[in-house]
Write a structure and sequence with these properties.
heterodimer; A: 279 residues; two-stranded antiparallel ribbon; 2% strand; B: 352 residues; alpha+beta; six-stranded mixed beta sheet; five-stranded antiparallel beta sheet; 8 helices; elongated; binds adenosine-5'-diphosphate; binds magnesium ion
Chain lengths: 279, 352
Amino acid sequence: MPIASRLALALLLPALLVNLAVFLVPMGNLALLSFQQASAGGALLGGFTFATWAKMFGDVFYAELVLDSVTIALSITALTLLCAYPIALFIYRTPERWKNLLIVACVSPLLVSAVVRTYGWMVILGDGGLVASILRGLGMVKPPRMVFNTTGVVIGLVEILMPYMILALIAGFGRLNASLEEAAASLGARPFTVFRRIVVPLTLPGIMLGCLLAFVLAVSSFITPKLLGGGRVFLLATEIYDQAIVTLNWPVAAALSLVVLVIFGIALLLYGRLSRAIA
Amino acid sequence: MSDAHLVLEALEKRFGAGPPAVAALSLAVQKGELLGLLGPSGCGKTTTLRMIGGLAEATAGRILVAGHDVTTLPPHKRDMGIVFQNYALFPHMDVAGNVAFGLEMRKQSRAEIAAKVERALAMVHLDGLGHRRPRELSGGQQQRVALARALVIEPSILLLDEPLSNLDAKLREEMRTEIRDIQKRLGITTIFVTHDQVEALAMCDRIAVMRAGSLEQLGTPFDIYESPATPFVADFVGRINRLDGARDGDGDILAGPLRLRAAKPGPAGRVTVMMRPHRLHIATDAIGPEWNSAAGTIRRATYVGDVLACEVDCAGAMLTVERHTHPGQPIPREGEAVNLAWRVSDTLAFDA
Ligand SMILES: Nc1ncnc2c1ncn2[C@@H]1O[C@H](COP(=O)(O)OP(=O)(O)O)[C@@H](O)[C@H]1O
Ligand SMILES: [Mg+2]
């Protein structure tokens, strides 16, 4: 082995060991856990059974849970992209002097815990909250419910995920360049055509990175769906929590966690494929 | 001026406070003419080009194309082909896609587009490279794609912003003649921005020399070089000797120890005298009345192969003489005493 790659291996080794210890080993434990028997009270009885997995594949509740989670996460991702894209584009085009200030402003919500922000949304979206009051003031007799349902979860998560999306988008906008847009315009492209044919394709790396990040965070987010869903919105992350902490059914919690891992794997695979396709 | 194809009327561009980037610029460009915008970096050439192309808004003045006011028209309605300094090729499209873009915007048929793209690529000698990505091309090839992309739409006006500045010297000369040939063949009205006076002199029908946002002189390469309107133009379009002096009542100019006569008469007062180095001769024969002369000592002789440059100290006035080299002709030694002579008609005097 050449010295350079031996040195590289030596330098990578600590990180590899740490990853092995804190990621792969627990994951293996999780996998084993999903095959264990448990008593109704939650005690693990050891042994080896396919019962948990059989139940998950047999019960339509779990299929719906996965489908709902993925659908809601995808909707959240799409909405986050829609809200964040114009902001990211604006920041990217801002002169350097103001750019950093705007980025800090966009990221500053991260300084406040997601729990606090979620409670903020509960107040704003609640029946007597700001949005409902405004709608009533505008003449709506019975404003729609916006908390303790999917709507609330989506609104809250979109806002919480926007800083991540904006950062990822800006990071992926490197190929965009004002003179390319000008060249397109000089060749006869109307502003919307410039956007469609030049801006969107050139920002695709940012869009994909942002979507991957938002999707993963949306699927794994737990506090916001728990609070804004009010126990009426069933998602993978909240269900894992309930199974592990409330129902004390650890094998089911472990199996669901592995399902989430598979979903992430699929998302990453798709991301890799698409990245290569547009390169 | 009504027959001019492109007319700029008192065009002005201001960026915030301070002096304008372009001020009161008026020009008329004939159909099929190649007009050079020449000037040092920062004098407003690009800004002028961007205003013509609709990429920057004029803060005052008008732009007319074939008699129509286009001053406020957005770029996509101006029908102008622009070649950017950095080429601005679309990185996510292949060469053919780049060239086809403008035709697609014009809603031409697939077959028509394919044929035109092929012809345009052949014109710039890129046949068969249609499927390459821009990043897989050399600088010279990218430049050709940019040119083909701008020309294929058959624009009414072609705008070139220092198109050769990113190429190496040899390629630059090649592209110079190539661009000029294509431009002449298509008869397309062209504005060519450059800070390279040789490029401007070699390519343009007329040159507009700009200085700090204003037009300093407009003329043919011959006019600009032989009859510069100002010391700035004389200095910018080629190497030149410069002496400060004063003109007396007889029209003689006293510059330090030298008594000179200039090509054109003028009033008494302070003047700047300028002579091109290659118009000065190291004299051997007696000189006639059409000549100025000076005696001096060679301070430095620089031999660069085709040209020999001598700096001559004429009693405090430093003059540079250049001549072509010949084998068998001795290279003057430093300290050698020489007589310099040059024609009165080559002596430019500018009233200060
Ligand atoms: N977008 C801009 N904002 C502010 N000033 C600018 C801008 N573009 C150009 N300028 C200024 O205008 C002047 C002319 O610039 P430019 O037209 O690019 O010069 P050139 O192309 O002749 O080198 C320069 O002083 C430059 O700093
Ligand atoms: Mg410029």
